[in-house]
Amino acid sequence: MTWANFLTFLRLVAAPLCAFSVIGGHWYGACALFFFAVATDMLDGVLARRFDQASAFGGLFDHATDAVFVTVTLASLALIGWVPWLLVVLIPSAFVQYTLDSQALAGQTLRTTRIGKSNGVLYFVLAGTIIVRQTIDAEWLPTILITVFAWFLVASTLASMFDRLITWRRTTS
Question: In which domain, by residue range, is 89 found?
Answer without folding.
Answer: 3-172
